Amino acid sequence: MTVPTVEESPLKSAGFFSRLFFCWLGDIFSKGYRRRLEPEDMYKVLEEDSALRVGQRLNREWGQELACRHGDGKPSLARAIARCFKSSILQHSLIISIEEIAKVVQPVFLGQLLSFFDVPSGIPVAHAYLYATGVCACTVMQALMHHPAFFLAYRIGMRVRVACSSLIYRKVLRLGSEGLSQSSTGQIVNMLSNDVQRFEQAFIFPDFLWIGPLQTVAILSLLWHEVGPSCLAGLVFVLLLIPIQSYLGKRLSALRSEIALKTDKRVNLMHEVISGMRAVKLNTWEKLFCDQVQDIRGNEIKDIKTSSAYRAFNAALFYCSAKIVMFLTFLTFSLIGGGITTRKVFVAVSYFDVLRLSLTWYIPLAVQFGSEAVASARRIQEFLLIEEDDPIVTVTYPVSDLCEECVTLQNVCAAWKKMASLLLAISGELPIVTGKAHRLGSLAFASKEAWIFPGTVRDNIVFGAEFHPERYRKIIASCGLAKDIRRLSEGDMTLVGDKGATLSGGQKARINLARCICGFLAEKTRVITTHQLQYIKAADLVIVMKEGQVSAVGSYEELQAANIDLVAVMPGKEEVKAATNQPSHRDKDVGLFTAFKSGDSDKKEKEEERKAGSVTLQVYLDFFRSGCGLVRGVFLILLIILPQVPYILCDWWLSYWAETQLSNSVTLYNTTSNISGTHNTTINNIPAVSVPSTSFLPIYVGLVGALGMLSAVRALLFFNVAVTSAERMHNSMLMSILQAPMVFFDSNPVGRILNRFSKDIGIMDELLPQAFFDYLQLILIVVSALLVSAVVNPWVLIPTVPITAAFFLTRHYYLQTSRDVKRLEATARSPVFSHVSTTLCGLSTLRVMKRQDSFLEQFHHCLDHHSSGWFLFISCARWFQIRLDWLCAAFVATVAFAAVLASGSVSGGLVGLSLTQAIMLMGVFQWVVKQSAEVENQMTSVERVVSYTHLEKEPPQILHPRPPSNWPSQGRIQLDNVTMRYGSKLTPTLNNVSVIISPGEKIGIVGRTGAGKTSLIMSLFRLVESDGTVMIDGYVTTEVGLNDLRSRMTVIPQDPVLFRGSLRQNLDPFSKHSDTELWAALEEVQLKQVVEKLPEGLETGLIEFGANFSLGQRQLLCLGRAILKKSRIVVLDEATANVDPQTDGLILRMIEKRFADCTVLTIAHRLHSIIDCNKVMVLQDGGIVEFDEPSVLLCREGSVFRNMVGDSAQFILRMRQVLQERRRSKTPGPGHKLRNNTMTPVGD
């Protein structure tokens, strides 16, 4: 991943006031308002926030925790995190404490100010101005403390997230084969996307766990002074909410852990499906995997809906709690004969608002976020505690001793199924059970399966080493890469994409080799594991392995002198002999199961799409339409509004109730209620008259009960609709992905697609419903507050209108930048996952070649790039919110001082109502605007998912009329003027190809890289649509549905594709065959005994990509699957390219035996595999240049096929000998009817 060059952050040089008020963001807001922001507009992450720094700090603390293993202690990641960031956590505690003190002190000033309006008050006007100043000063102090505190909390969470991500990646780099089998790519991706995200909010509210109790004691004493024991009624209800909220928090934490496990399983399956999408399409497994993913998703959604129900109940309870608290408090106060005054009412309202917010909101959130963070830390900790393999001992000798052994293995015993166990033991990648292994010096490693990581061609070759141009040019030439690089438009600076998506198989293999040699090997010790015996004559020492043991050691001549038949070591002698001494056709061509392109070889990886501007209304409509139909949608809208009726009526009825308690002689200055559900009655020097409450209580109870019931139903329905939307949009995206053409997967990295299925779906599942519902509830509260205020005092609307206008203007200015920053942050996440996926694929290579530090540095760059976007996003949010609070503070100051100025014409009740409304609106309205921005930012995830539901689709799976069930019954293939290109503006990879392949013929297809071999097969399977006509048994393939077309043919791939699941599921994905048939297939491919030895037999579980079986065994399982399918047309996509001669011979014999009556197309890698074909098709530059029997082509002067083989008469004679031996030993089948030619050696 190439990280864009960005500027230093202005925060680095910002002054105190610029930091306090976030003025340093002025430049980015100016840019964002004028144009769309680009990655280059972001700032460098600060040194103290860099992944390198925080990762090293946490790694050091975690190392100390691991040291506890030697004692009685147990390692704790949470404890390591607390020690690592304790200074920042303490700083946050101090700032939040000052803010909460200001909240407690403010009602004291408010009470004194309201006492000024009593008649007579006895309070001088000067004192009233001081009390008004105190109210305003507390408001200002809250604004000054609140935003730095929240900013610091989010920053701590970001640091912890980055540090834990670094820790996880460090662990990945150290995991051996045994450790990797205990985890999966999906689990690791889920930890890096969802688990570490829980830390981002974990540090906002934990201080309220100790502030809340202290605050309760202080407020209780002050309330007792105001309303006496009546305050206990409201306080008891508030305290009862704490255990309820704690229970909800614990249940949510437990559900989060269960959901995470199911998300792991889903994401891991999606990773396998996306990585093996070519196999999925060729085998028509789309519906199979769609059903599997949806089954897992269904179980996941059940838990998410349960979690959402808890969240809905919590939201409804918080919404109603203010009304219930006020009702209980003033009902009790009235019943015991208390006299209601302005001071008592509004001071109690203020204190209960503070107390309710702390005890029923902040503390439950602290428990919820804390529990989720602890659960995530526990999951990460379990991963970090997976046992690691002991590294091989690398010995450094003096130069004088370099003639000694470079590699020493003494009585080594290791357990693994793969063929290259000896090489893995030497490299230190195979756990050694007994014995010792020593190695002299450094090691370079080229794996059998070429590993290419995203970057340029040069990056993949140099691999983090120092670049020496002259040596680099020689390596390019020696590995045969010069021609390849000349074909790329950007040369060796061409981006190769995820897993080398823009390269052919041969190009990837040559780059893999060039990375390994890093120079010339004449003076180096070279250890090669090979199945191609023609190369062993050049070896100084040959080690013969048989059944996991060394059966012979010596030079080739010594082994021959000792009468050791190397061919006899492996069954399948004919095939081995045919392979020996042949000039191998090793221009390893692109296969169906590796990325194509010849005409598009220099295509760069497609940049991830980013929308511009605001999230459109259509996205919102798509979201809600997915969750409910028209009738349910109308009912939801009504239900959202309906609870506001009893919400307002509760205030009105309480006001009316209080009025009737006054005597006819009482002058009522004002009777109303505020948004918190209080009854505000200002009585100037007049005693209250107690009136029996029996006539009022039933109606009030009914209103409160209706409010609670409607609020609960509203919350439950809304959360259900939101989660249902997420479920259906996930399924729509899944279907769209499975129906997308292969070009989509070749131009989009796996991590980018997984980001949608992990991070974006996670936001839609859990974060978006909560944020959206909060926004709707709060906006309704604001509307209700404005209505009540307007009824009581219409003058309140005068300052409200400009404040509201300023809010929305500020919001508009903010969102112009915030949206782009959020989208940049979202796209910056994908490279993190892609880098991890790439690392896991090439873990052995980078570890053996000691490039862990280089890849860790690249991972830190990816993290820093994402942190840059996230840090900018939370900074912009604070910039926005602090300005809203200052506008509200100005509004509070205006109301307070204007009231003192007009003290002669305004009552205390109106002043109290106006001030409490202003203070309340300051918090609520600011939260409304904040939540509206949060909703829009989170809706970008919906937008990203929606964009993946409208991908270009392949042609229909089913077309009517469908071909007969036995089609194709013969296997005749005809191509007429077929032209194919991978893009409308690209050079054709097939150019007017016409050919007829008769039923039952065996066709070998050969050609250099880019000749069009794979393009021919892709046209046949319609992986890429082509011009011209392709007919199979008289049916034009474009008139046949893809499901019928692809399911009636069989592909045996070069890279065998198996999926996590049972052996039975991989052999028989659609459960069409009996156990007897499955065992018979296994017996035919000589795997029956292997499977019988497994404890669970056919139910044996395969790990990711079937890695617990060797490459040869995986290939044989694919052959067994093909045998069970019984297709009339079989395609071998270099099926024997990566296997040993024994497996090679077995596969060829099985094909000859089981597919004798079938039409077989073989893309050749080893030329001996096609000498028994009826014909050889030679492709060059997208056209067929030769098509005849191999014997004819070998005898033809100037033949391209003959030039491929070479001028070795010995090799040609050997091929004729093998062919004649096969003819004598086998009864000719239908595929041999054209074998009448006589081969004449060249030169005779």
Automatic annotation (TrEMBL):
EC number(s) given by UniProt: 5.6.1.6, 7.6.2.2, 7.6.2.3
Gene: ABCC4
Keyword field: ATP-binding, Chloride, Chloride channel, Endoplasmic reticulum, Endosome, Glycoprotein, Ion channel, Ion transport, Isomerase, Membrane, Nucleotide-binding, Phosphoprotein, Transmembrane, Transmembrane helix, Transport
Bilayer topology term: Multi-pass membrane protein
Organism of origin: Branchiostoma lanceolatum (Common lancelet)
Record-annotated membrane-spanning stretches: 203-224, 231-248, 316-336, 630-649, 699-723, 772-790, 796-814, 884-904
Localisation: Apical cell membrane; Early endosome membrane; Endoplasmic reticulum membrane; Recycling endosome membrane
Name this polypeptide is given: Cystic fibrosis transmembrane conductance regulator
Gene3D superfamilies associated with the record: ABC transporter type 1, transmembrane domain (1.20.1560.10), P-loop containing nucleotide triphosphate hydrolases (3.40.50.300)
Main location: membrane
Catalysed reactions, semicolon-separated: leukotriene C4(in) + ATP + H2O = leukotriene C4(out) + ADP + phosphate + H(+); an S-substituted glutathione(in) + ATP + H2O = an S-substituted glutathione(out) + ADP + phosphate + H(+); chloride(in) = chloride(out); ATP + H2O = ADP + phosphate + H(+)
Ranges for domain AAA+ ATPase: 999-1181
Chain positions covered by the region annotation Disordered: 1222-1244
Keyword Lipid biosynthesis set for record: no
PANTHER family from the UniProt entry: ATP-BINDING CASSETTE SUB-FAMILY C (PTHR24223), MULTIDRUG RESISTANCE-ASSOCIATED PROTEIN LETHAL(2)03659 (PTHR24223:SF456)
Gene Ontology terms, MF aspect: ABC-type glutathione S-conjugate transporter activity; ABC-type xenobiotic transporter activity; ATP binding; ATP hydrolysis activity; intracellularly ATP-gated chloride channel activity
A cellular component annotation (GO) from this entry: chloride channel complex
